[in-house]
Amino acid sequence: MSDSVQPVTSLFHCNPRELSTANEQSIYTLSLLERHPHTIQTFIPMGLSPLDTQTRFLVMVAPYQFNEDRPYWIKVRAFVATGNQGVTYGVGVWHAPMDECTECEVRDGVDKDVQVFVPPSVVGKL
To answer: Does the 34-101 domain belong in CATH 3.40.30.10?
Structure first.
């Protein structure tokens, strides 16, 4: 392994996010995307019973818009993952961050390798 490459692990405790509702449907509002141009990122649900079939979380990704060096915001895709699935984002993949996370243990180089994109339509609302 090269001297400049080191494995890094971060642990997060995530709680369900409060969703808004309209017409009796839950609504998730995506306000930003992030990417890590030099690292992969893996999320693995932990501490769940193997019998848990209710836990679900959203995985949201967007293609890269090469000519403008940003995510293609209107082509964001969302997927529902279950509590027995892990998710790995490849190097440079634009994705929604884990919301409502409280960092539990820090051994983290992620903050040194993160780029955030907030679309102009959202900036004034933050």
So the answer is: no
Burial class (CB in 10 A: 0-12, 13-18, 19+), 107: exposed
**Whole-number Å distance between alpha carbons of 98 and 88:** 13
Q: What is the largest CA-CA distance in the chain?
A: 55
**pLDDT tens track for 93-104:** 999 887 534 333
Please choose, from the candidates 64, 59, 118, the residue with its C-alpha nearest in 3D space to the C-alpha of residue 93.
64
Angle at 25 between CA 58 and CA 74, to 5 degrees: 50
pTM of the model as a whole: 0.75
Distance CA 43, CA 87 (A): 5
